[in-house]
Amino acid sequence: MGKIYDATWGRAFSALYDRGFKASEEAGLREMRREVLSQARGRVLELGAGTGLNLELYPDSVQDLTLTEPDPHMTKQLRKKLAQAPRQAEVIEAGAESLPFEDDAFDTVVVTLVLCTVPDQAAALQEIRRVLKPDGQFLFLEHVRSLDPGMAKWQDRLEGPWRFLGDGCHCNRDTVSAISAAGFQLGDIERPEFPKGLPIIKPMAKGSAQVAS
């Protein structure tokens, strides 16, 4: 019964995704996405592309775009949006922990609001490191564990119910530390707040990283 309920909620979550993010996008989240994606270049891989909210924000410096998304309901919406978009891209239904690409295949890997949700964050980061060229760049915009100990405790307390409501989203992951631990050299990291987000998902990290030499 639980699996049926989860599948039903996942379908509903994907159907309501764009509408649920609308206020936050208009209040500044979309501009944050644009700032991150403005650095993308060459052959680009976006993981967890969802319904395609980033599609119109990629710059002309992107020569080739590949989008992965493991959720079939999200993928269906992504393909519909892509069919109406001026940009061409390849869509592959795959999870971040096991990417069907060769080593050193991409100049840029992008994640926006993805590493909070992947079932195995460490495995996903190792896959990103594997498919990224030695001189490539990893661009990310994520909501993360708060630097404030009091808020971090609340994130821990509410992680369970939020994970259900957020279709697998973990509000308390220390993603920046995880990126560093995975063998990346962090660039400049900004700490904005999620526009119009609940307190437990307000802390964010926006930045870039490269494979550590």
Explain the layout of strands and helices.
Elements: H1 2-37, E1 42-46, E2 62-68, H2 72-83, E3 90-92, E4 106-112, H3 121-131, E5 132-143, H4 149-165, H5 175-181, E6 184-190, E7 204-211
Parallel strand pairs: 1-2, 1-4, 2-3, 4-5
Antiparallel strand pairs: 5-7, 6-7
Q: What structural class do the secondary elements suggest?
A: alpha/beta
Q: Please, how many helices?
A: 5
Largest sheet: 7 strands, mixed
Strand content: 15-25%
Report how far the terminal alpha carbons are from each other. Answer: 49 Å
Placed side by side, the strands forming the largest sheet appear as: 3-2-1-4-5-7-6
Specify the CATH architecture.
3-Layer(aba) Sandwich
Number of strands: 7
Radius of gyration from the alpha-carbon trace, in angstroms: 16 Å
Index terms:
alpha/beta, seven-stranded mixed sheet, 7 strands, globular
Can you give a write-up of this model?
The protein is built from 5 helices and 7 strands. It is of the alpha/beta class and 213 residues long. It has a single domain, classed as Vaccinia Virus protein VP39 (Rossmann fold, 3-Layer(aba) Sandwich). Strands 3-2-1-4-5-7-6 form a 7-stranded mixed β-sheet, sandwiched between helices. The protein is globular and about 45 Å long. The N terminus is likely disordered.
